[in-house]
Amino acid sequence: MAGEQRTVEPGTDVLIRKVDSHLAALRAGLHGPELELAERLAHCLREMVLCTAQASAADRGQVRVAVHYFVLRRESRGRLLSVRSLTAAERVVDRVARQLGRLDLLAELRRDRPIPDDAQPLNNALLH
Fold first, then answer.
1. Which one, 18, 32, 107, 116, has least CB within 10 Å?
2. Is the pTM of this model over 0.85?
């Protein structure tokens, strides 16, 4: 089975591992809508990391900031707690998705909502 070949830039796999590691930690303590939001955020961030691997340093930097915002955490009484709420991380991820012209990667989109017509691939968004 032939798969799509993606060139992975240095640092890309590190950011994806950070997202996946943090999501694994969140899965241990979250349930219901909070877990669904964390899963959506992780998916959006992974896609943004991959889509900007060949983009400008500014775009990659914005995605890196969103990833770090999502994974920032602290230890408190033996439990892993987010410094920022998932809702705050959602706002950051959505802001970066809009800046990249990737409305299809808005975390606020639900599966039952259609993707807006003005959503365009990053390649096209960067050319305009």
1. 32
2. no
Number of neighbours of residue 57 by Cβ within 10 angstroms: 9
What number of H helices and E strands is found in the chain?
5, 2
Residue 127, Ramachandran bin (φ over 0: left; ψ between -120 and 50: alpha; else beta): alpha
- Cβ atoms of 103 and 47 within 8 Å: the answer is no
> CA angle at residue 124 from 4 to 50, to 5 degrees?
40
The reported pLDDT for the residue numbered 10 is 64
Q: Tell me the C-alpha distance between 50 and 48, whole Å.
A: 5
The two structure tokens encoding residue 108: 């606020």
- Would the CA dihedral through 100, 44, 123, 62 be positive or negative? positive
Closest CA to 38 of 52, 20, 16: 20
Mean pLDDT over residues 91-117, rounded?
Answer: 77
